[in-house]
């Protein structure tokens, strides 16, 4: 039976669906038979990202309710790479959960990997997925709201005794307001870092156009390697090795910008420019400035003497209570 | 009794929480008593955006289960502006829904406006919220996945016979891959456009730092006006008037960039630069180009003759089946 992997994040809009599509494609390029499936019943979007929204006649719930056979609902993407859509007409609240596990396990017999694009939140759907997934990828952006959502999911992993989970730090470099990579990782204290993914303007464009590209950005491909190793072997790379790869990729481009451009020009033979957002190096100072200004303004409104708040202490304050409770939410 | 408004989007990560905070603050500045409340049980984030994560000792569920009185759970933000947090330890699946309606109605007696930050998806929580909200703000980004999620919520509005809803087109100008404003609006065919909101790097920074600013970006304030009118009067501005305001704001800045900068310099007296992302005017051409390239590449892989796909026809194809079914999902 194929390995069942779920991609979860707690918070929506951090890139679960895109990751599902591109990780599936990458595994398929390595020669595996792969199924990607949307489990966001009632609010699906993987079909739009794949450009398959008009090719759906049956869905996962139709198989499970015996309204069609397995093959009728599968949307083929490539040789050995299929897509099973979620229903739009029903929600997780309207269907049983046990049936889902049976369905996925039955289907997994035909594949090497089944990747489930989980819904946001921690409701009924994710409960069902927890019970069938052998491995989880937790996706977080380097923003506080997303980091905390992943902490919440990690807590559930422990409650559900599913310890085989790894983190994907996603969309790094998209926003200047982001928490620096090292601090984001530190705040989560996660055992397995699956990979760090750069924000890619190309992928956003392709998702909008409904095209799953054969090969994506060079930077994405480079950072995909540790992730694939984790999925294939259940063993994550050393965090320092992933960080080193990350920094070698982006620090070089930042310092020798002209050289990097020349390199890009010579080794691409398509019209697509490899346009990947740079990671903001050492943004702490900028954010510190903003925080202090705001903090001072707020203090002034309260007519108390101004007090300095560094970003470091804000970080500690923000997550101290969480870790003081042994990583449990009240 | 105060008016109960819910902010919903279907898809997560499109700005519900930020909008809740800033709309609440704006109504409060107009002299109203306002409560903002997080209804994302188990996955709250409004407290982080407000910087109140360490000020929470009780929450909405504690009031409802009589574990504290109303005032213990309220976090005061300003005179006449309070915040009621969601629980983190329970999910909507673990609590009854009727109690929530009673709670919110009881609390609404003390306020002019109660604004509910709804969870993503269309599960139990949103079911409860549909039953208590008098007006909905539907938040969509100009991206296909978000636009379709809002269509799904609109369908639910009709099923639940809640017709008093308006659209906020949010984060406009954040991504070059975005659908142009006019096309996004056309694809939704929504009766009430509440407003168009620009993406603001400032607000993202402030959210990260956990500071709710007294007054936000000038552009945000300008585009807040039609939204506040809609909330106060239940009557939306004419769509053309909102579009005109939007274009006058951003087209002028695009054309006379130098002038705009001079203006900004003279009428701000703080250290904050008013840094608002520009709306990409007429991006159709760029996107068309990408789409055609992708489409051609895909065709070539399939060894079929290349075929031109314009973005316009993609739009029509993409949503034709939806509207052909009378705006209903199968």
From TrEMBL, chains A, B:
Signal sequence region: none
Keyword line: ATP-binding, Cell cycle, Cell division, Nucleotide-binding
Pfam families named in the record: AAA_31
Domain annotation AAA: ranges: 3-156
Claim: Transcription regulation is one of the keywords in the record: no
One GO molecular-function entry: ATP hydrolysis activity
Protein name per the record: Cell division inhibitor MinD
Organism: Veillonella criceti
